[in-house]
Specification:
Blueprint lengths: L6 E6 L3 H12 L4 E7 L2 H10 L4 E5 L7 H7 L5 E6 L5 H6 L4 E4 L4 H15 L19 E6 L2 E6 L3 E7 L2 E6 L3 E5 L2 H7 L5 E5 L2 E4 L5 E2 L3 E4 L2 E4 L2 H11 L3
Parallel strand pairs: 1-2, 1-3, 3-4, 4-5
Antiparallel strand pairs: 6-7, 8-9, 8-12, 9-10, 11-12, 13-14, 14-15
Length: about 240
C-alpha cells in the first residue's frame, strides 16, 4: 500500500540514458521518491527484497529476463509502469495489469499522465480544480488546484497564462508551474472573462500580464503565444487590434 506522503519508486532499465531520464522525471514530482535504479531484473529482485517499493518503472526488453517475465515471477508485485521502445509489447503489458505503458522516448507530460493514474488508483480524486473564491473583488480572488497529491492555492493575479496538455493543463505563474488534471475548456468557464482571454485552443492568457501583441502573437513573460484563427475575432475585439 502506498504511504500518504511519498510513492516509493524503483527504475529498472539496461540503458543508462533511459535511467537518467526516469531519475530526472521522478525528482521533478514531489510525491515521488526514488529508492534506486537497476540495470536488470536480477538486480531488481534484490532491491525488492531489501526495500518497500510502491511503483516499478520497468523496461521490457532486457538481457537475462524480460520485464514482463520478471513480473510473472513476483507473488505480490508493486504497481508497474512498463517502459519500452517497442509497441509490440503493449498488449502483454496490460494483460499483466500494468498501470500504464510508456513508449520511448518518454516525454515528461506522458510520464506525468502515467503517474497520475497511479495516484488516481490509490487516492481517487473527483475534483482536481476547486471553485474560485473572491475576497474584496477579483484582485484577491484565488483558485485551488490539485497537483502532486496536494491542493494548491493560487491567486488569480499570479497567473500568467494557461496551456493545455490534452487531459491536463499547465498553469504558469511568475514563480512556479502547476500541472493538474483538468480540461482547458472547463477551466475557461471558471475564470472571470474580464481578467482572462482564450487566444488558442491550447492557451488562455491573463489580460493584465500581456506585455505585447500582434495579430498573430501575444507576448507574456518573454514567451510568444499564438493566436489561432478560431479565436482571432474575439481577441481583436478585446485587445482592439487593427
Amino acid at each position: 500500500m502506498l504511504n500518504d506522503k511519498k510513492i516509493i519508486c524503483l527504475a529498472v532499465d539496461d540503458e543508462p540514458p533511459a535511467l537518467d531520464v526516469l531519475q530526472k522525471y521522478i525528482s521533478s514530482v514531489s510525491s515521488l521518491e526514488l529508492a534506486g535504479t537497476c540495470n536488470n531484473a536480477v538486480e531488481a529482485i534484490s532491491m525488492l527484497q531489501r526495500f518497500r517499493v510502491d511503483l516499478l518503472f520497468l523496461d521490457i526488453q532486457m538481457p537475462q529476463l524480460l520485464g514482463t517475465d520478471f513480473i510473472r515471477t513476483l507473488k505480490n508485485p508493486p504497481k508497474v509502469i512498463f517502459t519500452t521502445a517497442y509497441r509490440k509489447f503493449a498488449v502483454e503489458g496490460f494483460e499483466l495489469n500494468a498501470v500504464d505503458y510508456l513508449l520511448k522516448p518518454i516525454s515528461f507530460e506522458r510520464f506525468l499522465k502515467a503517474v497520475n493514474k497511479v495516484m488516481d488508483i490509490t487516492l481517487p480524486i473527483t475534483n482536481h480544480v476547486g471553485n474560485i473564491t473572491e475576497k474584496n473583488g477579483n484582485d484577491d480572488a484565488f483558485i485551488f488546484f490539485r497537483a502532486d497529491r496536494k491542493t494548491l492555492k493560487v491567486a488569480l493575479d499570479d497567473i500568467l497564462y494557461i496551456e493545455s496538455l490534452k487531459d491536463y493543463v499547465k498553469v504558469i505563474t511568475a514563480t512556479k508551474t502547476i500541472i493538474t488534471k483538468q480540461s482547458i475548456s472547463a477551466l475557461e468557464e471558471m475564470l472571470p472573462k474580464e481578467n482572462f482571454l482564450r487566444i488558442h485552443r491550447s492557451y488562455i492568457v491573463s489580460l493584465n500580464k500581456i506585455e505585447s501583441f500582434t495579430s498573430e502573437l501575444v507576448g507574456i513573460a518573454k514567451q510568444e503565444l499564438p493566436i489561432s484563427r478560431m479565436y482571432r475575432h474575439e481577441v481583436e475585439k478585446i485587445l482592439k487590434l487593427d
